[in-house]
């Protein structure tokens, strides 16, 4: 026998049609924004690589789709970005710049940019690369601060 949810006052709540743009109470945009921001964590990128997500063509296409977060109207929703100083990086991912704060897009956009590169996706399992990304993000985040 099926049971019906009842409000505390004994009435049945009205049924709402399922909105295809809502997932567990969040919009698709909110979920995508949260996911893009999670890419600022190098260990999460390594997790994606170790679990073969970065080998999946559908997942790679999804990462390319998420590139819309680079556009100015969407940058404002990202927490870990410095859009005032960002320009596209022409250097390969293996060159970790010690003095690159004037060209550093913040870990969120930097990761999204790097994940577009096949070689980076292959190398994302290496601890040295993940450590370098973490160091680069920390240095960029603390540039200009006095301890």
Automatic annotation (TrEMBL):
Instruction: Give the highest taxon in the source lineage.
Output: Eukaryota
InterPro entries with a match to the protein in the record: Med31_sf, Mediator_Med31
Q: What is its main location?
A: nucleus
What is the annotated localization of this protein? Nucleus
Q: Which GO terms describe its biological process?
A: regulation of DNA-templated transcription
Q: Name one GO cellular component term.
A: mediator complex
Sorted alphabetically, which keywords does the UniProt record give?
Activator, Nucleus, Transcription, Transcription regulation
- Single GO molecular function: transcription coregulator activity
Q: Record's family?
A: Belongs to the Mediator complex subunit 31 family.
Function, as annotated: Component of the Mediator complex, a coactivator involved in the regulated transcription of nearly all RNA polymerase II-dependent genes. Mediator functions as a bridge to convey information from gene-specific regulatory proteins to the basal RNA polymerase II transcription machinery. Mediator is recruited to promoters by direct interactions with regulatory proteins and serves as a scaffold for the assembly of a functional preinitiation complex with RNA polymerase II and the general transcription factors.
Subunit arrangement?
Component of the Mediator complex.
This chain belongs to the protein called Mediator of RNA polymerase II transcription subunit 31
- Please tell me the species this chain comes from: Friedmanniomyces endolithicus
- Gene that this sequence comes from: soh1_2
